[in-house]
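User: For my dataset I need records formatted as: sequence, then structure tokens, nothing else. Please produce one.
Assistant:
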Amino acid sequence: MTKESKQTSGYPRARISPPSGEAFPYRHILGIEGLDPSEIQYVLDRAMAYADGEKGNARLRGLTQINLFFENSTRTQMSFEIAGKRLGADVVNLATSSSSIKKGETIFDTAMTLNAMRPDILVVRHGDAGAVKLLSEKVDCAVINAGDGQHEHPTQALLDALTIIRRRGRLHGQIVAICGDISHSRVGRSNIRLLSALGARVRVVAPPTLLPRDIDRMGVEVFWHMQDGLKDADVVMMLRLQNERMQGAFVPSTKEYYHFFGLTPEKLTVAKPDVLIMHPGPMNRGVEIATSVADDLDRSAIQEQVGNGVAVRMACLDILTRHLQGSTA
């Protein structure tokens, strides 16, 4: 039986009639906010299977996936493309730099044009918060948010969670310190929501100028000094300065920022000896993280994050098209 739509912070979670036994009855993945812990865990369980080597058996054969990126991307776009192809989908990458958008066409007209071509799934990245949700209301297919402004980046948070689970065995009770530009980071927001939902103890470490105004309502511990925030941490997740989203000066200089908030071996001495180092990329070495830390073979999971991204995106594509799989055979 179809369940009623669930409204969360203005984001309607359109429910579909899931196949028997399915536990993710949503048409789109627009954000982590609004997802129940069991629903998040369901996606992670599917992703774990793909990370462990499940092939997918061309589940998406005959289905069309369009990647529509209004912002530049390397890791996210490539991993969505690889994920779709591993599942057998026909993958189309639409370069907005050479599309009619450059001629003045609105995102909504573009959406209607794409919708007329009857894709089965649309992966969208856009620089404006909420743009992906608005686009999802104009199309008939499933939509995945690949990052919208400063709002959310749900698949990044999912792959980060998968990485922690695979390396440390669990999320519940883990002390995770998210450090850097929290205010402008969609990755930070999605991670705070997901990690908190699954029982991690989340800290944010940043200068006051890089903390969101509503940080007190996010259920995290706030630290203004790295030494305090990293003490006994199990996981340290670094975020880059989002200079492209800043209007004005938020730090005196990158040199001074690195001195106080860059992750160095010295600062890590107060964390757990086996602390896990993470970064969503792209990294700015010598600004938010030292090269020796980023390349630490024992503690850095940065390259594993990239690999786990493919598994997570395979899981998302698979889950959202379950009601279509087999219909094209």
